[in-house]
Amino acid sequence: MYVIPYTQSFPILKLPFIPLHNVIQSFSPLEALDFSLTSRKCRNIVKSTNLFKYDIGLSLLPEQTLFRLYRNLDREHLVCRLSVNELRNRNRHMEVKGILKPYFNERKRISLHFAKVWLNYLCDVLQMKLKILQMNPSSSIEQMFAVAEWMNSMQPEIWLCEFHDGIVKSDSITRFFEIANFPIRFLSFEVIQRSDTGPINCGALNVEDISVATRTNADPVNWFNVEQIKTWICVRLMFHACKFEERDLNQLVKGWLNGCNSRLEFFSAILDPLDFNIILEDIEFEERDLTLTRLFHTSLTTLPLSRTFIGGYDITRSDGTVATLQQINRFPGPRPMWEFAMAVWP
After folding, report:
1. What's the domain count of the chain?
2. Could you tell me the pTM of the whole model?
3. pLDDT tens digit sequence for 308-335
4. Domain F-box: where (predicted)?
5. 31/47 Cα distance (integer angstroms)
């Protein structure tokens, strides 16, 4: 007959502060969460230790993981995932009125009330800050408006804002940026685009890096135009397969020469083969010899980024800043596309 082994209880709340501090230090984030939910006293103990130096990411995608905890904003060092089901099983410990439902409906759209309650609790008890926001690009205009208003009230400093996986709804994303009034450092689009996708207006973005891509090269990005891009204040701007033409790039380069995109260090776009006679029309340039090889180094988010320029076309702004243009590096895929790159030399 199986006998349940006897386990002696551990009087953790009777420990002096320093030993108690050491015990809590050995907790995982999920163990610390469970301990904090035991009572208000336990919650205050966890909060007072201030041991959990993590950044939290919120995902509003239709998936099971609502929160991810990272160490030092390094997405390679994922410390913990908190799924919708794990949090729903702990709802009874939360001091809220009514039933705390995780979803709005059968389509598994995350309830913002559910997300708010748990995010506020985690940030308060574990002394964390929201740094990563993953948005569902298929969300309704009303949902985007509500998220933007929520973020405005929190005033977080978002390290990375992603629109990820879903079919892009241009009107909804435009509405989000009309309302959003909080700092974003890195902005990423990796979405499913349909042939009838309309233009997106993000306003005058002020971010470090912007990355724009669709899930398939069959429908290159066509929802940003050059006139809008010229208003952006960013350092690095990368488009995967897109529909810019030579006249578009001519206007972009002229804009940079005239002071637009003044912080820009690197621009790239995956395009069909280009005619540089059109790109450089009415622009003073110096064509460099193919024997000249130059290495350009920068970074995208936390990842190093480098390009090798062989020859290329140099242009010079009125303040003496030099940039090089070149179409390099064939992009893998069923159709011949190449990377157009513009690097601004330090």
Report:
1. 1
2. 0.88
3. 999 999 999 999 999 999 998 777 666 7
4. 9-55
5. 13
